What does this fold into?
Amino acid sequence: MLTYPVPACTFLRVHAASPDRGLTLDRTGRNLPNRRALLATAGAIAAGSALTTTPAAATTGTGGPEELAPFGPVTVRPDDRRYVGLLRGNNFRFVGRPDEIRVAGSTGQVVRAVSEAVRSGRRVAVRSGGHCFENFTADPAVRVLVDLSSMDAVGYDAERRAFAVQPGATLGQVYRALFKGWGVTIPAGGCPEVGAGGHFVGGGYGPLSRRYGSVVDHLYGVEVVVVDRDGTARAVVATREPGDPHRDLWWAHTGGGGGNFGVVTRYLLRSPGATGTDPSRLLPPSPSEALGCLVHWNWDRKMTRQAFTTLLRNFGIWHERNSAPGSPATGLYAVLMAQHQGPQGISMVVQADAGIPDVNGMVNDLASAVTAGTGVEPVGNSRWTMPWLHRMTWPGTGEPGDVVTRRYKDKAAYLRRSYTEAQLSTIYRHLTDAAGLSTGGLLLIGYGGQVNAVRPQDTAVAQRDVVMKAVYHTTWEDQAGDAANLAWIRAFYRDVYADTGGVPVPGEVSDGSYINYADVDLADPAWNTSGVPWHTLYYKDNYRRLQQVKARWDPRNVFHHALAIEPRA
It folds into this structure.
């Protein structure tokens, strides 16, 4: 069995008057009792009002509970045995030391936690899935950490004709609920343990994005806990409706990144143009089966510089030619994984809806195009089908490294076209350097397609004419490996973009970077010598508008981190 150390979560994260319902609804909108009702309090909140709770659960004559008590709030302080287990997110490089961790179960509990933090003058951060690549939630300066992982309800809001997803719901939970209940899905990521909270707001993408766009292209609204200038915390619902006075807050959450404007407590999903009241027609239909293909090449004497660079160039050219919106080939999602020279080699994984007409023929054409002219034949070429839900919710490989290897550094870039010849040679040099790291590598991920059908200004995701994403990554086991791994990946990235100051400045080939793969080096003049600020690399011309939204909805700058949007004066 082949295993590939890839960066965590890369390719494989309501009602205004009653934000605390916590209900799952059936197709007709009737309330269905379910375990997720644990996550909500019974009281409704008007803006900034006090939280009302229900009495403790009663029991029936048979000894079973009629109704379980709502979850939370739970406060965990340093003397609590749970404290250490709740400190870290997915990346063990970072560990904070907050005064308390508030595990919230409802919007009302979030309002209360934020209110108390603001009132006491303590810095607050919010975590849902915990898969942030940097220390935004594990910063030692954070005094109150609000944990939303228990807010994981997924259901249908009949009044708004939208699916409601709480931020703690993992992508696997979202896929299961949408599939089982209504046979629909969203074009989100392929890592089932990523939380919806940060993934959605950063403009998440995944195996269906070339076909259906970014996940935020299906975002109808958000429920957000914001803090007014006087320090009052309140819940606000903002939608994409043209007449919504809060529409700018919705727009900021279509790719503006987490930790900038407030605390999202509910996402509302409905595809643009979807009509009627049948939930099964309000989001893209879920595929029934997934087709998968793995093509593998060894690092051996045949994999010369010319063969390697041709392989990567071909992958890029195929995406240049097959990423227009509506192209039949946008049904294919391909990832080229080039590990540092060693036994793991180079692989291309292709995934598609098995029901697409002539999908096997398109996969064959892609594999042939990538191999053409290399002089190197794959040593492995396997294909399989499996239920789509199984593919999107499989929890992981089960390898020991999934638990032990929890330190990593990722750097990213968008590509409008294939790398230049100089960049391809640089990539080959770093991946074959004898002094390099066997756990490091590069991913090229297919993008574009329907993503590029949306204008840059229509959402906060500004990169709307790109065809690939690149991810430079390295993983390791313990703190002793920090210096070597960070030095290797920083030099790798800097050298690939040597002609533009060490970063992917928007131009003919590159188009900046992706905020969900946050990289604080882009704001460090030691590693970004381009003169182009980090916020241009992430947001381009949309940054000015994001600043305006920030100034309106977070005037006290309560929510901030190392790459936070700055309020515009």
The longest helix spans residues 305-321. The radius of gyration is 23 Å. The domain at 24-52+68-281 is CATH 3.30.465.10 (Uridine Diphospho-n-acetylenolpyruvylglucosamine Reductase; domain 3).
